[in-house]
Amino acid sequence: MSHALSRRDLDFLLYEWLDVEALTRRERYAEHSRETFDAVLDLTADIGEKHFAPHNRVADANEPRMRPDGTVEMIPEVKAAMDAYGESGLITGTFDESVGGMQLPTVVARASMAWLQAANASTASYALLTTANAALLAEYGTDDQIETFVKPMLEGRWFGTMCLSEPQAGSSLADITTRAEKQDDGTYRVTGSKMWISGGDHELSENIVHLVLAKTPGGRPGVHSISLIIVPKYLPAADGGRGERNDITLTGLNHKMGNRGTTNTALAIGDGTHRPGGRAGAVGYLVGEEHRGLSYMFHMMNEARIGVGFLATALGYVGYLKAVEYAAGRAQGRPLGAKDPESPQVPIIEHTDVRRMLLAQKAYVEGGLALGLYCSKLVDDQITAADADEAAEIGLLLDVLTPIAKSWPSQWCLKANDLAIQVHGGYGYTRDYDVEQHYRDNRLNPIHEGTHGIQGMDLLGRKVIMQGGKGLGLLTARIAATVAAARAAGGAAADYADRLDVAWTRLVDLTGALWADRDPAVALANSSVYLESFGHLVVAWLWLEQFLAVGDAQGDFYDGKRMAARYFFRHELPQVGPWIDLLASMDSTSAEMNPAWF
Amino acid sequence: MSHALSRRDLDFLLYEWLDVEALTRRERYAEHSRETFDAVLDLTADIGEKHFAPHNRVADANEPRMRPDGTVEMIPEVKAAMDAYGESGLITGTFDESVGGMQLPTVVARASMAWLQAANASTASYALLTTANAALLAEYGTDDQIETFVKPMLEGRWFGTMCLSEPQAGSSLADITTRAEKQDDGTYRVTGSKMWISGGDHELSENIVHLVLAKTPGGRPGVHSISLIIVPKYLPAADGGRGERNDITLTGLNHKMGNRGTTNTALAIGDGTHRPGGRAGAVGYLVGEEHRGLSYMFHMMNEARIGVGFLATALGYVGYLKAVEYAAGRAQGRPLGAKDPESPQVPIIEHTDVRRMLLAQKAYVEGGLALGLYCSKLVDDQITAADADEAAEIGLLLDVLTPIAKSWPSQWCLKANDLAIQVHGGYGYTRDYDVEQHYRDNRLNPIHEGTHGIQGMDLLGRKVIMQGGKGLGLLTARIAATVAAARAAGGAAADYADRLDVAWTRLVDLTGALWADRDPAVALANSSVYLESFGHLVVAWLWLEQFLAVGDAQGDFYDGKRMAARYFFRHELPQVGPWIDLLASMDSTSAEMNPAWF
């Protein structure tokens, strides 16, 4: 069996910890049961093993190429996998039954997608992008747009992308120069260049639905003039099929260190390569209202950021499972103090330092998965909230947690991949084993969908202070509840609770102190350190949650959970101390550094 | 100009800090002067820029291939570079004048080699391996062996390798199965398989001199039966050229994540592919005495380990220089609080978080270079010591520092490459920029020449306790001298000194505590954490040394040094606190973890 995630761990997290089964008592999910959730996971595992995992390395070694005619050449296994995925109906997971969806809880759909990401991150990205695109249109599009664009995506026939970045505006969306002009018939004509567009072109689907950020006349400067425009590769035909070729064309494929199976593209929009309706300019359709494009996109971006966290976790997780298997099977060396140099060599998992590296991986990847699933469950809680106030509160909590859900796995599950290589030794550095690819693939995640640095600015500069710190307060209340429960449980749980409580209280207090004189340059001087401290404490909290969910349960699986929690509280949590000290000192070293001094 | 190292920084470290010029007052180096040292560095920079740097990425994208006839196909630029290097005479750097060497101080030769490693790590490896091989033979070989094997290597005509690992014995040399049998004529016949042999085959040189670890009959079990045998690819001819093809053949090339320009090979020895003297079995020549092979190799391995540290540093350094250049040139975003969204974008080096990432890189790579040069200068001090006692003391100090010189840059200069990618954003993840290659190349370094874990065992299990901890005491005395000088200097230096002193004293005290009950399983349970704590403190000490060497000097360069020292003491040194706490707690989490619980 090929590796992906651990089903045992998923079952624990979903059913024994998060009690996802209880969601079926809510009206939205009333048609579901644990059996239907399990069936989704079983189906996913089957597709992952048959169609995704087998070509993971093949796709890496044979990356997509742009043919002279401007089309994309790719190994056929990717289309076969995506066809199988489309036929499975899994892509309809969270969508409403009214549009043909399975109306699954987000947390179950995310678990399913994470499985595929672990099996083959690059191929799964086409699915993830299409889901995100369709979800945005299902939320903000007109009925007609849903009929025209969302339905073919849910049928697996059309794929979707998000077109934000431009060559001169990667992280700075205020500086995009793509423009859209309204036409007399209500459509738009779009011109510009987009960069870093994943899945931006390929021959995998009948059509590609691009969601393009473009400036439209009349808005205030910067991001307030941005609108969101649907720009399909082929204009929709009256019969629901694809019509005329639109004026959006591939100008280049980016050649990446990893994640090579996913095309990453530079696109020219409206440069006259194609002439829909007899003239240059890409035909586009406005989503929602003009100048509100970024707010629609941000809604999607929160989900995309949690999705990046899952991607990072999935890559770390599958590397961890492979490292455990390798360490159990590879004989090398002898126990400390062995007297006979000719006694048989032992599996390297017998060496304490190898177990340390495996425990660290376990703590990172299971922590990352817990974090992603927790946030996904919050999405379900928000969707099914009793009233608008409750939904708003959960939304605030999600806002605060999203930078962590994105950045923490991107950092630490990448570290897990690093350790998986180290466990493999020289073999891990060769392309005969998978772990080096997982590491290269995972290195993308601290960069895209908002770099690590941008997540830090978002968290400390916006999320923890908005509405007077209400979101931070909600998170603190949840952590306090876990701490109280752990203290009541006593023993190691109480010890962990004390450690977490002290550090979290310091960080919260510090948040106010950093903003005391309201100068962003002072408050944000070490925002990445704040982000990393916050992240480690959130994951410590979720390890404490897991530890409590384990309780007194017996068996190897539960012993493993207890040891991973212990590892996190003894080896990882204490590292936060100096980070918080640094923040408390209002250190200005980086701020004072003069560029001329490098 | 292509990037490599900073000549300004090298000049500072060599002349302003280490006072390498004073070496010319010692007899061995009396023929030299700062002018000859500078000439070596100038020549290196010229060769690096003309012959090494230009094909660095080309070699990565076109890795060596094994032809059907068993020879190696490689881009021609590698041979051109190595020919230029051979002609330059640089390879003779540290060798005695009596064998045609330049008799340079090690510290200067290392600086020269590091420059080439930064320009092109993979091509430079052929030179480094040949130097190490020749140095070992120059020390332990007979006059005849020196004449036959060392001279052609110093002429750049023959290359050398080190053949230690085998498929079933990577880190565990006791388990090698290659055997050598003495023949009536005094030569040996060797049979076995070797794995991970860098430079193990190629067509770059007329001949390849392999130094092979093999077991010879009669020794005690394990490592005590290992001898060191010269196995040339071609037997030496009477005229000094190459004679009959020896029975050592390439069976496969390893395909690696990085460092692709250096062939890494599996070799069959004595399998009858060639029949020197009419029969199967590779002809070999014993170095020194039987069963002492590992001790000769360990002498070389210490140098090789310092060499790996330089390699890691060089890769981190060149990535840092490229990141600074990119950050100064890439416009993106605006200063915090900028009111006008249409004001011009600023270079990203204006963003504090980008400067944090650059400062971290600067602290790592300049710290790593200081560490490597310090150790190299110790080698010179040892060679030119006044008496045997002084030489022995310096040798002990080097023994203690070697695991750090190898492991610390392998960890932190790899981290520097990670940050160089992050500074480049999406572009850094593409193969259009160099930094992703440096990162892939550098990932090798925590693995080869003794993994990170093995360095930890070597440091805590052997180096700091041998001779009753004498080596550790010598290091402590040097650190104490720096601390005293810094306290006398006052100001920031005194503050840094206090921080270092407290942490170092704790670590030294702890060393005894860990070994209190003499149980290696207890003492070594967290040896990697010990290694990392030790390394960070050693580099903190060397940053304090640099800070003192800067003194009150004025100018951008010195301001940069001061800020990097400040960064190290404020951001990096405090991280050691929780690591030492963990060690002090005698944490047994990894030791107690049961393999069945993963």
Automatic annotation (TrEMBL), chains A, B:
It holds the Pfam family Acyl-CoA_dh_N. Its cofactor is FAD. InterPro entries: Acyl-CoA_dh-like_C_dom (IPR025878), Acyl-CoA_Oxase/DH_mid-dom (IPR006091), Acyl-CoA_Oxase/DH_mid-dom_sf (IPR046373), AcylCo_DH-like_C (IPR036250), AcylCo_DH/oxidase_C (IPR009075), AcylCoA_DH/ox_N (IPR013786), AcylCoA_DH/ox_N_sf (IPR037069), AcylCoA_DH/oxidase_NM_dom_sf (IPR009100). It comes from the Bacteria. Keywords: FAD, Flavoprotein, Oxidoreductase. Belongs to the acyl-CoA dehydrogenase family. This is Acyl-CoA dehydrogenase. It comes from Gordonia hydrophobica.
